[in-house]
Specification:
With about 220 residues, this protein is an alpha+beta fold. It contains five helices and twelve strands.
Length: about 220
């Protein structure tokens, strides 16, 4: 479990592709002293296990499923990546609950410059947009952010925006990204559970008609 508060920018040293997956090697700098094999680390929002540490370089095995769901397979040597160590019991919750289980990817559509901030727009598949609400949480490349707006685009696409302050741009990879770059997206876990449970309610016998939750229906489920 993570919070979406980026601790460090690592550097890609190597990405070796193989039929069964990939081997990713990162330079963690001084952070490597605090990392041990077997630990979970968020790399661009993807939860990976440290398999080996040599000096300041950490190695990770990346499965085919992870390569399919995320943009880790597109990483190049020298590229910067967002790093966050897993949440410890008693740590401050500075962002929101982030699992490191990427739901899919989005594409940067545009960047709007405003005094003191940049509004960045992303296009995403419909199934991801369905889990987003205005003022809700979203993790982009592992960064905990707040959704500003969600809207339908011409051609059936969906876009959402986030507001980025100078600190976020300077201390995460979003400050390095360009229009048309692909990013990892993890939608809020609470929203996914609500959607799943609500969908089950609609399918069950005696569920709320036309998606309406009435007082009678709540009482039938034990709510008073």
């Amino acid at each position: 479990m993570f919070t979406g508060i980026i601790e460090h920018l690592g550097t890609v040293k190597e990405l070796r592709r193989a039929e069964e997956g990939s081997r990713l090697v990162l330079d963690l700098g001084s952070m490597a002293k605090e990392v041990k094999p077997g630990e979970s680390i968020s790399v661009e929002g993807v939860c990976l296990t440290v398999t080996d540490i040599k000096g300041e370089q950490a190695s990770f095995d990346v499965s085919q499923e992870t390569l399919k769901r995320s943009m880790l397979g597109e990483l190049k040597p020298g590229q910067k990546v967002n790093i966050e160590r897993s949440l410890r019991v008693g740590d401050r919750m500075g962002g929101h609950f982030v699992q490191g289980h990427v739901d899919g990817t989005g594409i940067i559509q545009k960047k709007e410059e405003h005094p003191g901030q940049v509004t960045m727009w992303f296009t995403v598949p419909k199934e991801l947009a369905e889990n987003m609400i205005e003022k809700g949480s979203v993790a982009i490349d592992g960064i905990s952010l707040t959704v500003v707006e969600v809207k339908e685009m011409p051609g059936g696409a969906t876009a959402f925006s986030v507001a980025l302050i100078p600190f976020t741009l300077a201390n995460t990879t979003l400050g390095l990204k360009k229009v048309d770059d692909r990013v990892n997206i993890e939608t809020d876990i609470l929203g996914k559970w609500v959607k799943k449970l609500y969908g089950a309610m609609l399918k069950e016998k005696g569920g709320p008609a036309q998606g309406e939750i009435t007082m009678e229906y709540l009482r039938s489920k034990g709510f008073e």
